[in-house]
């Protein structure tokens, strides 16, 4: 009896190794499943990337059409139909000068005063919302175009199902310090980082051309509510 069950074990063991040798992909699949399950516990399952450059190339008219059907300022694609936390940590890249920090700090205050988002200083962790403030230097390449670039920004989200973690970026263009280092431009770019897209409403801080606005319009608040208060 004892010898028989020992033999049965030996046969089963041999069969097991036979399966592994014959079908190595079976074992690999098992490993992959476990890994994905682990990943699913964190909001990292698939990646949705905002292309800041592509968005900037989009003609203004396009976002104008999008805004027509609703009063609320439109939402940037990476945050559309997703839920995300309204708390953010923000930090400045090392080369950001004091005057730029100052205007971004003022922009942070404007958004915090809405009560819809809460931004606090800190470098953030990988699975929490954060905003990085930066500067860059980009001269006008096409003198025929009537506009210069004052800044850029946008959200970058990692999403799992309907939950997104946003690593937003907002930057000012140092090539034009006199017109770019302004509270209104900082508010506009931080708006992008938090998920607001361009609006055709001239009262909106998300109008594509700087008008010196430093107060969020009701439509901008409605846009933020659509992202953070649902
Ligand atoms: Zn913009």
TrEMBL record:
Spell out the SMART domains in the cross-references: ZnMc
Domain Peptidase metallopeptidase positions: 80-230
| An MF annotation (GO) of this entry | metallopeptidase activity
Q: Which UniProt keywords apply?
A: Hydrolase, Metal-binding, Metalloprotease, Protease, Zinc
Q: Does the keyword Zinc apply?
A: yes
The record's listing under InterPro entries reads: MetalloPept_cat_dom_sf, Pept_M10_metallopeptidase, Peptidase_Metallo
Per its UniProt entry, which superkingdom is the organism in?
Bacteria
The answer to whether the entry has keyword Transcription is no
The protein's matches in Pfam families, at most eight in alphabetical order, are given as: Peptidase_M10 (PF00413)
Question: Which protein are we looking at?
Answer: M57 family metalloprotease
């Amino acid at each position: 009896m004892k010898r028989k069950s020992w033999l049965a074990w030996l046969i089963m063991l041999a069969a097991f190794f036979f399966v592994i040798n014959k079908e190595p992909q079976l074992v690999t699949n098992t490993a992959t499943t476990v890994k994905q399950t682990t990943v699913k516990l964190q909001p990292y399952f698939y990646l949705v990337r905002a292309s800041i450059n592509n968005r900037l190339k989009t003609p203004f008219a396009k976002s104008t059409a999008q805004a027509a059907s609703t009063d609320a300022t439109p939402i940037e694609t990476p945050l559309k139909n997703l839920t995300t936390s309204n708390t953010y940590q923000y930090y400045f890249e090392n080369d950001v000068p004091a005057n730029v920090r100052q205007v971004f700090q003022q922009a942070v205050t404007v958004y915090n005063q809405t009560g819809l988002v809460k931004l606090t200083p800190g470098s953030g962790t990988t699975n929490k919302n954060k905003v990085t403030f930066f500067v860059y230097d980009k001269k006008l390449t096409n003198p025929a175009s009537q506009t210069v670039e004052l800044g850029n920004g946008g959200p970058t989200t990692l999403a799992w199902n309907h939950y997104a973690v946003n690593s937003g970026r907002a930057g000012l263009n140092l090539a034009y310090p006199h017109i770019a280092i302004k509270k209104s431009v900082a508010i506009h770019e931080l708006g992008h980082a938090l998920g607001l897209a361009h609006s055709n409403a001239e009262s909106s801080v998300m109008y594509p051309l700087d008008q010196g606005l430093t107060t969020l319009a009701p439509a901008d608040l409605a846009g933020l509510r659509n992202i953070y208060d649902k």
